[in-house]
Design brief:
Length: 417
Amino acid sequence: MKIEKYSIGIGDRFGHQGRAQLAAFVKAREQGVEVVPVWNKSNREHMLIGTNPANTRQEADNAVKELGWKGAYYVDADHIGLKTVDLFIEPSNYFTLDVADFIGQKPEESDLAEFIDHWSKYIGTLKAPGLKEGLLVTKETITSVGKKYLVAVKEAGKIYRYVASRKGKDNFITEVSTDETNTPQTPVELFFILAALSKEGVPLQTVAPRFSGQFLKGVDYVGDLKQFDREFEQDVAAIAFAAKEFSLPESLKISVHSGSDKFSIYSIINRAIKKFNVGLHLKTAGTTWLEEVIGLATSGGNGLQIAKEIYAQSYLRFDELAKPYLTVIDIDRKKLPDPLKVKNWNSGEFVNALKHDQSCAQYNTSFRQLVHIGFKVAAEMGNRYTSALVASQKEINAGVTENIYERHLRPIFLGND
């Protein structure tokens, strides 16, 4: 199984928007660009909402059947480890191996010594095609990578081999995520992480590095755009070079996690993938859930009431809801409007605060981030929430399709012209 050149991960918290999501990919295809959808949902989300991976598979299959989609599509076991993978084995054909907890763990001395000895042949300056400046490699560089990432690489190998023993090694796509760490990987570090994964026998097809700047939930990129531009090009070049150097799958490509709504970097990504003629995987998640809340608010009546309740409860339960996301949110609690004030808002006022339109004076990034992490509140509403989705289906569907096509697929893969 070989991943196509362009793909986007499309999370759908409640499993109601598969068709609306896929409609965006149909529009892209009509414009001459083939991007494949990857439905992704983590074990944590399944636990909070009360769904399971088989539900995600059913949603994807139904959307594909209803729209007559003839292209490839995938169901991602998102951020799984050995403790959580079993439920995903049968319904998934894409596995994102999460080894974040193992990054920084001290390797065995013998393993580290072997790692340093094996890769010391690269000490000097690496000439990666497409980069004007070479990548400097020292023994200290190799030692540092081994100390920080070798245990994580070995864990990735364990997870991969377990999945392969259950599904067959050629029946799924493997992604390795190294983005959940405090510091970005340099291109040289990424090169040796891929070297180690190759030696470990992991035929990964996408890799998600940690970039500089902040990739916060549901809002634009926060950081130095020039630095990101430089880093992204270097990472793309390092990945392409490593794929050839270590006989990794030729389909190996970069993956951008928490990529939804990072509007300011999309033109940078577009230029880089065209310049190097490489693939891209971009992972979105809560952006579709936010479009659901926007659609409910837009429809007025009961939908607006539910949207207001979600915000009010999220406001009251801030610490509980924020705890799992503290590294990927930046909410100024002073800028959160009082729920009593929000209770009197009309549809337009609620939508203006929530919808990601930076030209709108009422847009509130703290408000948006709080609603983003408040899906647990909606899950606790049960049928009341999902029935509201059905009642507001027209408004929600339009927003979901427009968001994925106009705000993600078009600027990244077609360009804005």
